[in-house]
Design goal:
About 40% of the residues lie in helices and about 20% in strands. The protein has about 325 residues and is of the alpha/beta class. The protein has a domain at about 85-185 and about 225-255 and about 290-305: Rossmann fold (3-Layer(aba) Sandwich). It has a seven-stranded parallel β-sheet, with helices on both faces. A two-stranded parallel sheet has the order 7-10. α5 (about 155-170) links the parallel β5 (about 120-125) and β6. α1 (about 15-25) crosses α7, α4 packs parallel to α5 (about 155-170) and α6 packs parallel to α8 (about 260-265). The longest helix has 22 residues, at about 95-115.
Length: about 325
Amino acid sequence: MSSLRVLVTGGAGFIGSSLCEALIAKGHTVVALDSLFRGSEENLASITDHERFAFCQGDVRDIDALDACVESLGGVDLIYHLAAVNGTKWFHEAAHSVIDVNINGTLRTLELAMANDAKYVFASSPEAFGEAQSQPITDGDAMVFTDPKLHQRHSYGGSKYLGEIACQHAARDGLNVQIVRPFNAYGPRLCGDDYGQVIGMFFQQMLESNSLTIHGNGSQTRSFTYIEDVVEGFVEAGLRNLATGGVFNIGSTEEISVLELAKKIAHYGNQTELNFSEGYHGDVARRVPNIDNSRASLDWQSTTKLDEGLALMWQTLSI
């Protein structure tokens, strides 16, 4: 495949930075756009000086910033749209910003792709299903959202649902669009503060206080997917010749409860304590992906077992 000109929004984030590295390694020219609200230029340290990479700090809703990225590339062939406000605490505390950034960022980047006839890959989420009525989550399942008076968690899931609607509308208008739903990606750069994700939070809590805080009773289950596997799914969705409107669950099928996850991570510490607290409103009891379409269309499945991935993450954190 010839070298492509690629824009990655959210390119300094956890997934985005690793995606930029992978695309550079495959010989493509990449510009990363990021506001640095959650991303960090440190995540891009390995490619900062690469001749085929450039970083642009800017807001994904800013048309001028998007146009500047395309101008620096000399045009754009492929857009990966990962920029979003993520982190469960933000869903409750800043629902307006979550909705604004996620929906308007998607609309602006879709418009950019259409104006440049560029292929478009949208980073959706299993949260787009709201409170999924069946497991494993399969494309075509009902997307169900509860009364917004109860909680604001679905500010994020609702924004991803509407993002998928906008993508499928663009696909019907002729844009080559692919939708990727990563399931609980984790790895060494994962945010571990109060606004982060559970594996990152557990490791950071253990390093700082040798204790882990589990939401609820820990019986809720998830499927955690190592970053290298997730990035491979994104790369395949962007670089393969696929019919427009494809939707791919990118997730491990290795299911585990949050309590059992905490016990695995506690083994890396010294007599680590397990504490329990009130869970987040709207937290789903179970989430596991059906990856049949990813296997068939992308030749993709997760190959990193959870124990292996946790060990790799710990090696990086304990240096």
